[in-house]
Amino acid sequence: VISFVFKMNLVEDSLVRNIGFINIVNIFPAYEPNLNELSDILSNIIAKGRLIPMRNRNKITFDRALSESQNVVLAWGDVPSKVNAKNHTHEVLMMFKLLVKYGLVNNTYLLKYKEYEQILTNKKRPRHPGRKTPISYVKPNDLKFERNFLYILM
Predict the structure, then answer these.
(1) What is the pLDDT of residues 117-131, one digit of tens each?
(2) Cα(10)–Cα(85) distance, rounded to whole angstroms?
(3) Distance (Å, whole) CA 140 – CA 35
(4) pLDDT in tens, 33-70
(5) Collapsed DSSP state (helix, strand, coil) of residue 146
(6) Strand 72-74 and strand 149-153: pairing?
(7) What DSSP string runs through 54-82?
(8) Residues with Cβ < 8 Å from 41, sequence gap 6 or more?
(9) What's the burial of 93, exposed, middle or buried (CB within 10 Å: 0-12/13-18/19+)?
(10) Whole-number CA gyration radius for the chain
(11) How many Cβ atoms sit within 10 Å of the Cβ of residue 76?
């Protein structure tokens, strides 16, 4: 992601240019590159009663990052199969409310990848970069949160 942003700063007709810094924040208050292990980590956090305090700290991190931002790129992918979808939705809603709070809804982008024709996943979520190759930014037509789902209209 960092090298992609650096390259896009040099592209004259890029949607997003002159980026001075990058904040990368995680939708969950825990990080694990192996999706199979993420569920176990989150279950352990919940069992120890640590989810709410971690969510609160994560919201502070998101709030700080978005308060300093001019543009935002969404890229979290589908809900991992072993992760509770309600927990995932809670974090997406928190992030969306902060986008609204800081007036960033119209400055929100998705990544387009060389490997995929579709911008969104089949489940209509912004693709996670993982080990894919971003080739450009795409601006959605609209973002709205209804019925516990963030609708990204292309």
Answers:
(1) 999 999 999 999 887
(2) 38
(3) 27
(4) 777 788 888 889 989 999 899 999 999 999 999 999 99
(5) strand
(6) unpaired
(7) HHHHHHHHHHHHHHT-S-EEE---SPPTT
(8) 30, 32
(9) middle
(10) 16
(11) 19
pTM exceeding 0.85: yes
Q: To the nearest whole number, what is the mean pLDDT of the chain?
A: 89
Calpha distance 3→132 (Å, rounded): 13
Copy the structure tokens of residue 33. 């590159």
From residue 9, alpha-carbon distances to 22, 74, 76, 119, 149 in Å are 12, 18, 22, 21, 32
Q: Angle of helix 51-67 relative to helix 85-101, nearest 10 degrees?
A: 30
